[in-house]
Write a structure and sequence with these properties.
Blueprint lengths: L14 H12 L37 E7 L10 H7 L3 E6 L6 H8 L3 E6 L11 E2 L16 E8 L2 H9 L9 E2 L3 H11 L8 H11 L3 H21 L11 H19 L1
Parallel strand pairs: 1-2, 1-5, 3-5, 3-6, 4-6
Protein name: tRNA-uridine aminocarboxypropyltransferase
Pfam families: DTW
Keywords: S-adenosyl-L-methionine, Transferase, tRNA processing
């Protein structure tokens, strides 16, 4: 199993930070994101006044993640995939290419210590892949009585880009698929409120953690996402004064979720 990390450990530079720096090195001009005049933190990419890095802590978890990111997705300040790497210590991140597939990524997918699961909607599956909506401990037990670590593979981009990545990547067709039941998605949407968009990468990952029998870690990631969204909107002056909830509310909600996560492990 992957070595767990204490919840009290401050999170370090992670895979998405490194991939972001690498992708920037390939660019011939600055990435033209909305709010490009905003002075941003180099790590969380939020406005410096609303940087969340000091609150970032690793969760104690037995789950690993792999982010396969579409071209410039890693450059977008609004990307939520990085939030997974913020909290999950064993997170790997790679750029997707149609032809020049990263060999290190393929090696991880073949690593006998991991059991990969593609986190993807069942309705888009075109191959005879096993589909599950829960990852149970017995599914990870090997004949040798060793337990594999679930490696949750996330396709990070727009839904159109994610479907393209899936269809044009044969190595994604060789693993079981973790797909969520409609009632799970409906319950999540109800709890999140009136979001008029499809779930983002971090939101899907929070559901995946719950499906991997770590519901409190799923709630912690969801609270981290809420703090990220609110900090992003504040940085862009997208909140009317009469609708403002103090940012401390979101910080406290995340702190409470971290405490509950630790109690789950204890």
């Amino acid at each position: 199993m992957t070595q767990v990390v204490s919840q009290t450990s401050k999170a370090a530079i992670h895979a998405v930070h490194r991939l972001h720096a690498y992708r920037k090195s390939l660019s011939t001009k600055p990435f033209g994101a909305r709010g490009k005049k905003l002075i941003r933190c180099n790590l969380c990419l939020l406005g410096e006044l609303f940087c969340t890095c000091k609150h970032r802590q690793y969760l104690t978890t037995q789950v690993s993640f792999m982010l396969i990111m579409y071209n410039d997705e890693v450059l977008k300040p609004t990307n939520s995939g990085r939030l997974i790497a913020d909290l999950i210590p064993d997170t790997h991140a790679f750029l997707w290419t149609r032809t020049n597939t990263d060999q290190q990524m393929l090696a991880l997918l073949d690593d006998p210590h991991y059991q990969p699961y593609l986190v993807f909607p069942q309705q888009y599956i075109e191959n005879q892949q096993a589909v599950v909506n829960q990852i149970m401990p017995q599914a990870l037990l090997q004949p040798s009585n060793k337990v594999k670590t679930p490696l949750l593979v996330m396709l990070d981009g727009s839904w159109r880009e994610a479907i393209k990545m899936y269809r044009k990547s044969p190595y994604l067709h060789q693993m079981p698929v973790l797909s969520f039941a409609p009632e799970a998605l409906a319950t999540y949407a109800l709890r999140k409120g009136s979001h008029d968009f499809q779930l983002g990468t971090a939101e899907v990952a929070s559901l995946a953690l719950s499906a991997a029998q770590e519901p409190q870690n799923g709630l912690a990631l969801s609270a981290w996402f809420d703090l990220f969204v609110e900090s992003s909107l504040l940085g862009r002056n997208r909140r009317a004064k009469e609708t403002l909830t103090p940012i401390e509310h979101y910080i406290n909600a995340f702190t409470d979720a971290l405490t509950a996560s630790k109690q789950q492990i204890d």
